[in-house]
Each structure stands twice: as structure tokens, then as C-alpha cells.
Amino acid sequence: MAIGDDPVRVGSDDLLLSIAEQLKVPLTTIARQAELGQLTGDLRMTDVGAIGTQAAAALTLVDSYLLGLQLWSEQVELVMEPVSVSSLLVDVAHELSRFAQYYGVELELRVGGRYGPVMSHQRGLKAALLSLGFSLVEAEASRPERRPRHVTLGFHRTPHGLVAGMYGEYEELRADRWRTALDLAGKARQPLTAIGTGSAAGLFVADAIFRSMNSRLRVGRYQHEQGLAATLQPSRQLQFV
Amino acid sequence: MSNILLIEPNTLLAATYTRAFAHVGHHVVHVAGGQAAVDAADRRMPDILLMELQLPAHNGVEFLHEFRSYPEWASIPVVVNTTIPPLILADIESILHADLGVVAVCYKPRTTLLDLVRLIRECTSGI
Hints:
The complex is a heterodimer. Chain A has helices spanning 13-40, 48-72, 85-102, 122-141, 175-184, 201-212; strands spanning 81-83, 105-111, 118-120, 149-158, 161-168, 217-222, 225-232.
């Protein structure tokens, strides 16, 4: 099922704690936004769009976690099939764009060439990338006084396979820090300060989903940017067609 | 009217607080982190600091130690509004109050805008 050494297991108390901490932020924002209209006596003061984006972020985290749990416990069959990552990334970018816009973060989609499909689980891959994306956009927005705020959703080829992930100016993000963060998930309040504040639950959920698909999130570079990405194997099926 | 220095990493939440405080006549300067807070306080002395303890690249308690080390800012009231649960904060609450001059510690998910507006009015009533 899973590969690697001691991942943040789906269903573990650590991951649940991390998710509970993460969910406080969007839910608090929604609650305060709802209150703003009442406090001011002007319901137009309540930013319905902000409520919508925060709800979407919270629901994505919960949905991604549940899918990870279902894949892990085999309630959902892990059907690996040829998946076009380029078109899937367009979907992911579309879903993230409104959220990013609200946070004032530029979202760039950068695909490094024309690649064939990879072997993956379509829903799992999308859920993992969305979870990663929501997490990094929010983290980018919390970085003090950084202008412009920018993250890249990238897909490119390496000698090890095709790599999909998210990148930005995270010079302090290194492989050892990511490994430490995985160890600290649910135990530390800010396990990965190299990226941002908060419990980083979305990153751990994304990693857990990738692991259930025999991959994992790793620190990687793409065109002068540093980020978290997973290596995916090309589908051999279509190479002979 | 008070000058509030708001240190809040989440920009959407910060915008919500800013609008609520502006509605009751306060002037708010929002920053996301500790260093920017020092710079902002240097430019314009705040009447009160409202802050999250979990800050990017800067621990909120470390920031407060630094902030209090400047004599001109030593008596500015500080209100902590954080997502860290009260049970966990209990360990450092005496440090926050006694050593760092924090006048109130609020649990952010349970602290309404109205609570904050009232608290800020109480803390700045003598100004």
C-alpha cells in the first residue's frame, strides 16, 4: 500500500490534530465575516465571496482527508489509470484561482512541455494537488510584506519521471526541514515555518494521498523556484499505441 | 479613536477586523509579521497592539520580548488574540501577563468582533 518510512498516517491522531488546527482559521474567518454585517448594521459589509472561498478551503481539506482515508483503508479502490496531468492541472488551477485572487496571490500554471499521461488515480491526484495548492496559497498570503505574492503550479520532466507540484520563493525549504515537519505534524503548532504559519495540514494530507498512490511529496526545484512536488510515472500503456 | 497595530498573518481575517474597528472609529495598521510590526510602530506609535502569537518566521513571544525592550513601547497595552487553545496557553500565561505586559489573552475562534471592540475600548479608555 504505502511506501516509505513512517509517513504521517491517514487516520492518525497527529494528522487529525493538524487538520483540526488548520480548520480553525477558515471557520473563524467565516464566523467573523458573518458577524461583521450585524455589528455594523450593514449586511453589505459581510464579504460573501470571502466566506465562499474560506468554506471552499475548509471543505477541500476535509474532502481530501476523507479521500485519503478511503484510499488508505481500501474503501475506495485504488484504480491506477492513465491520467493527463496537463489537463488535470488546468482544473486544479481553475479551482484555486478564485481563492488565490482573494488572497492577492498570483497563481501561475507552468507546464514544461507536451507530456503523455501518467499512471495515477485521477481523483486522488486532483485532491492531493488541491490540498497542496490551498495550503501554499494561504501560506504565501501570510508571508509578511512579500510583493508580488506568487505561486506556481508546475509540471515537468526529470530523469526520475514526471513531476507535478507547487513552487514559490521558499529558499528556506529544504528536504531535512520537510522531513522534520512530517515528524512534527500534529505535535508542533508551526511545523514548517519555512513556508508559513499554521499547522500545514493541507501539505500533510496531500503527502498522505500521494503515498497511498505510491508516490510522496518531496522538496524540489523548478525554474529557480523551490516547492513541494511528487514524481509520477508515465503511463506505458499509450506508448505502444 | 485609537491607533491599533494589528499583527495578523491571515489577510482575510485581518481585513475583517480592520473593517470592524474602522466602523467604530479606530485607525488600524495591519501587518502580517513581527519585523513589519516593529517598523510600523516606529513610523506611528500605536495606542494598542492586537496580535496573534503564531507569526511567520517569528515566535509571538519572542517578538513581544523584543517589542518591550524599546522603552517608548514598554507601556503600550497588548491584547493577544490567538488560535492557540487556552489550555495550552495556560503554561505561558503568567509570562505573558507579568513579564510582557499582556492585558488580555483571547481565544480567537471564540472571541467575537464585539468582544474585541469592547476590550479595545476598555484598554484604551484612558488615552
